[in-house]
Predict the structure.
Amino acid sequence: MNKKEARALIKEKRMKLSQEYIDNASNKIFEKLMQNEDFKNAKVIMSYMDFKNEVKTDKINDFIKKSGKILVLPKVTDKETMIAIEDKNQYSISPFGNKEPDGEEYKGDIGVIITPGVAFDRNKNRIGFGRGYYDRFFIKYPNAKKIAIAFEEQIIDDGIETDKYDKKVDILITEKNIIK
């Protein structure tokens, strides 16, 4: 399936998900993530703040902070750049309408990048919103484990079209499966 079709199909499916489904599936994904060795061993974890029916991340982010790990969150700085900022509970609203952290760019190592996406396939290919922020960010942190979290509803079984700029994730966790 091409990217444009996949994005449209999954965005529409995701917007129809009930809050009960989102909450239950997000809790199951959280439980699976807690069992992941890379997640358990990472000292610095990049997550994100969920937006528009994405997997809920508040529980994940709270766990990271309470466990003594460093939580960094993404912030878009221009049309091509996303940086990581350590979460210090200071936020603003981005031009896209989602919450982002305020602060200085985090420049240390990142062990795990919890990765959102619009659509995925079972080969761990990922489609985002089409601006390439995460694909470019992954290049800056080649040793970080990329763990995508998504609802089973976001998986396209037929596969999705990719190009040379698209980066696969290392692990894909849904409420039903862990794809390594």
